[in-house]
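Q: Joint fold for the lines below.
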Amino acid sequence: MFEGKRTRFEALVRAYSAELYRYAYWLCRDRFGAEDLLQETFARAWGNLSALRDEHAAKSWLYTILRNEHARLFERMRLPIADDEDLDSLADSRLGNVHDALEMREALHALPPGYREPLLLQVLGGFTCDEIASMMELSSGAVMTRLSRARLVLRRQPGLADGAEAAA
Amino acid sequence: MNCLAFRRRLLAAPRERTPAEQAHLEGCGDCAQLATDLSALDRKIGRTLRLPVPDGLADRILLPRLRMRRWHYGAAAAALAAAIALALMLPGLIDPDETALAADAVGPTHPAVAAISMVVEQEPALLKEGRTGDPLVMQQKLKYLGLELRKSDVSIRYIGQCEIGGAACDHLVLVTPEGHVSVILMAGEHLSTRVLVADRRMTALLSPAPTAGAYIVVAESPKAVKRARRLFVHG
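A: Joint structure:
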């Protein structure tokens, strides 16, 4: 029984640790913190593995655990965000000097967490708007608004839109 | 579908496309250009997000569980021997009829439920940190409650402090032949009867201590808790 649990757990770790590490990094923006967060996430997953009945739900289950662990460790149960937050000023002031290879990273770092997180879940995790809404306990409309605004900000940065067009 | 609705949707979810959106895309050059630009933007975002992952990450996550497996098999024979020894030595002390209360019956703030939460949620991180307190200090604290750890095939894995219901408590993790057993000493708690509570696949036994305060034993089953309680003798 223990061996079966360990085998199942190992399969989850091998399949998802890399992408969860990246998600953790972009949540806490620190490589060591990301690995600690990942360890906590899998420790929790190990303890509650019997609660995972559908293997198809494993990915969203692990993302949700990681997200909750991050909230618990950083005492941030909900993302402080107002939908009318002025992202125009963010684009003009905080990102004015970004350049070349660092520009997208800087731009992503500068996004408010409430805008960055659904973007991470969508681009990195491959989740749909409805799935993100469920994980973040938001309405689907709110998620779509945040995703739209995040992309508008990123697109507005000098060089990013040009880069996007060049890449197309 | 008009251009405004299409673009709103496109900005939020460039990869999710309904048949109506696809039809609009094929008939509108401006929106098709925007879709191309946003796809390129998303590729750039994706490349940035996909950081290199540290070498050996999965192995480091799995390592504690591999160690647990080695301990698990190595301790199996000892666990069996200990169980037999306990059954022989203490036939009248285990009350098979005592059933554990559900957490709902006593409420989430009950010390036994709070102790289980602490063990499930915080203890793994404490064990991982590897820090531990002074065994002599813990011995004195046990003595204050009128307890003494029976000398047997039990080792102390962790000594520290925790908070249960807002009160600072002493926290002890023992490695017994039946697995990890957590013991929480509550010097300030006053009880007259013991309470057995089950929650989250764990069982906690809250007992009055012989001379002062109370203590909680948390383990994976009622039987393990009751047996673990026998690890203590009245000091």
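Q: Anything notable?
A: The CA atoms of residues 196 and 205 of chain B lie 4 Å apart. Chain B touches chain A at residues 8-9, 11-13, 16, 36-51, 53-54, 57-58, 60-62, 64-66, 69, 72, 120-121, 124-125, 128, 201 (CB under 8 Å).
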